[in-house]
Amino acid sequence: MKLKILTMTVLTAAFFHYGNLLLAEWNGGNAQIIPASIYGDDDRQDVADSDAKMQALSSSAVALFLESSLSTGAKTGSYSLPAGAGTLGSNRGMAPGQRFTDQVQGAYCSGALVGDDLIFTAGHCLKESIIGNFDCAKDKLVFGFAVTKKDGSAPTEFAKKDVYGCKQIVSWKLDAKTKTDYAVLKLDRKVEGRVPLAINRGDDLKVGDKLFVIGYPDGLPIKVAGGAKVRSLPAGAPYFFTDLDTFHGNSGSPVFNAKTFRIEGILVRGDNDYVNTSSGTKTDIFPQELGAGEEVTKISEIKNLLPVTLFEKYLNYAEKEQRKPAPVARPVPAIYFPGSNGPSVQPAVYYPEPAPTRVEAILI
Asked: For a FRET experiment, which of 60, 102, 229, 295 has its CA 20 to 30 Å from that of 254?
């Protein structure tokens, strides 16, 4: 793992005022940047470019915003990004040809809805930020910061119904020795119109299992990124390594098993994000199998804190049904039709019992 060590003074100088809110872990007077990067092809997609299953899952991912980065509408109660929020291109000085440079930045961390009023995120998202501590009573959790139409743009204004406050920090841990890194927050009210996600309680993840991640890389509107896998599972560690395409704003993102749609962990650490070139800033890209990899806190670290959601119950049922042996076919009797040339016969047809509804059905 690559971790840059800089003083808080240097970090403050590098901070972009509205977008690109760089999170840091406080450690003995220094701040450790939590970066990440791209492996092989850049697999990030906007919601509008993703399939129906990814779109449905994305609706239950949440963006963390500092109160100071949002303006409040006095009459409507809505929230909005200030006019000077800036885009990735302008804030970062991105080189020509880089992706998503025209999209606005705003979020500073990611999270996921895992109960009617519960979300998780990375522990370091609550520890220290460049402009102050996370304030559970003031900072906001926003759903719907996404590009949902082809060639469209993400909203810069959010309806009151999509913006939630933090009522309570249910559990928080950031351990420099074990590298445990997570937080569970209780929202100020139940989330309406969005499905709490399912987690894997089996702790049976294997090296090579396919993964995807949903979150807010570098504060951009939500992105889905697949084409990744589990690289390694260090013995006894509360985390595992992947080659997910993620950035520091992805901290707290749910990492899903691509086969089961269950959350396997929380994105927390990774490689460098960018490199400076003579033509501007470029995304730092590694060959798929190289680089230090992205670290993910195992969901088993918090599984006992999370309720079994309706979606999780559905997956449990569907997977149980799929493991049952194939039912014995039952015959439909032959049917005789009278005719001028004598009776005609439709042969008997054998149909199996109806198969259980596919897991994907609940996601569409």
From this structure: 102
Cα–Cα distance list, 107 to 218, 252, 325 (Å): 8, 12, 47
Question: Is 209 among the domain residues?
Answer: yes
- 110 in any annotated domain: yes
What single-letter amino acid sits at 352?
P
**Tally of domains within the chain:** 1
pTM: 0.77
Side chain identity, residue 240: F
For residue 91, what are the domain limits? Answer: 5-313
C-alpha atoms less than 13 angstroms from C-alpha of 302 in its C-beta half-sphere = 34
Q: What band does 282 get if pLDDT is binned at 50, 70 and 90?
A: confident
Cβ neighbour number for residue 178 with a 10 Å cutoff: 13
Please compute, for residue 79, the number of CA atoms within 13 A of its CA located in the half-sphere on the CB side.
22
CA dist 189 to 65, 115, 119, 164, 165, Å? 17, 11, 12, 7, 8
**Joined tokens for residue 141:** 């959790």
List the alpha helices (DSSP H) in the chain: 8-14, 52-58, 88-92, 124-127, 310-322
**48 sits in which H/E element:** none
CA distance 116 to 192: 8
| 83 touches 71 (CB < 8 A) | no
Residue 219 to residue 145: CA distance in whole angstroms: 10
DSSP line for 268-325:
EE-S--EEEETTEEEE-EE-TT-SS-EEEEEGGGTGGGS---HHHHHHHHHHHHHTSP
Distance, in Å, from the CA atom of 292 to the CA atom of 273, rounded to the nearest integer, reads: 12
- CATH number for the domain spanning 93: value is 2.40.10.120
Q: Do the Cβ atoms of 234 and 182 come closer than 8 Å?
A: no
Question: pLDDT tens digits for 209-259?
Answer: 999 999 999 889 999 988 899 989 999 999 999 988 888 888 999 999 999
3-class secondary structure, 79:
strand
